[in-house]
Design a protein that fits this description.
This protein is α+β, with helices and mostly antiparallel strands. It is built from 4 helices and 11 strands, in the order βαββαββββββαββα. It has a 4-stranded mixed beta sheet with strand order 1-2-3-8. The chain has a 3-stranded mixed beta sheet with strand order 9-10-11. Strands 4-5 form a two-stranded antiparallel ribbon.
Length: 216
């Protein structure tokens, strides 16, 4: 947290931004990304592409949502684990709850076609809680399903270092966020600023220097 003697009118983001940037590659696994957040004791970080451009934000909440989605793959109150990670829940035309296979039709040897509640064709798993043998293992490009880019919040609110602090505060209010990533002209993360940083300069900006107390 930084403080400054500048007036609020003159303050720029560069006057109070933090320069310790933690950036997560969008191709990193979600598990490694979660470990990065824990190791750096932060609850969110910028997500960057191969060129270092900020393409999103990954938060602890995003990681928990992903974990909950995996847990929900187990139907109803069934205590048996799902057999693979390409499963979702669904219902047939008859209203029967089934496990839907999210892989393309014909990719997995234990798939079966059914009609969903709306009458559309869907692919279900015939052995949703079975232990897959080697011959049933599916090799697919979708094996990257656990990469960060699938779970990040895309198009994050960002600001440039020369953005006025008054504009920064308005962005925070309008977007209902407490932290904003600071980027350069190429949208590469160069810092971050939080609402606490803004409060600090509001508390001390324009403050008149106090006269020293003389001892008698």
């Amino acid at each position: 947290m930084q403080t400054t003697n500048k007036s609020m009118q003159a303050l720029k983001v560069s006057d109070l931004m933090r320069h310790d940037v933690v950036a997560i590659p969008d191709k990193m696994s979600l598990q490694d990304a979660a470990r990065t957040l824990v190791q750096n004791r932060i609850d969110e970080a910028a997500v960057v592409d191969g060129r270092g451009k900020c393409v999103g934000v990954l938060s602890a909440v995003d990681c928990m949502r992903a974990a909950r989605k995996d847990a929900d793959a187990c139907l109803g109150s069934c205590s048996m684990p799902a057999g693979c990670s390409f499963q979702a829940t669904g219902k047939t035309q008859a209203g029967k709850q089934v496990v839907v296979c999210t892989l393309p039709a014909g990719v997995c040897p234990i798939q079966k076609k059914e009609k969903d509640a709306a009458g559309n064709e869907m692919t279900i798993c015939t052995e949703p809680h079975g232990v897959l043998a080697d011959w049933q293992t599916v090799e697919t490009e979708d094996a990257c399903a656990k990469e960060v880019w699938r779970y990040r919040t895309a198009d994050p609110v960002t600001v440039l270092p020369h953005t006025p602090v008054r504009r920064l505060a308005r962005l925070m209010i309008d977007a209902c966020i407490h932290r904003i990533i600071v980027v350069d002209e190429q949208r590469r993360p160069v810092g971050g600023v939080s609402c606490t940083d803004v409060l600090a300069v509001m508390a001390f900006a324009d403050a008149e220097p106090r006269e020293p107390i003389l001892e008698r």
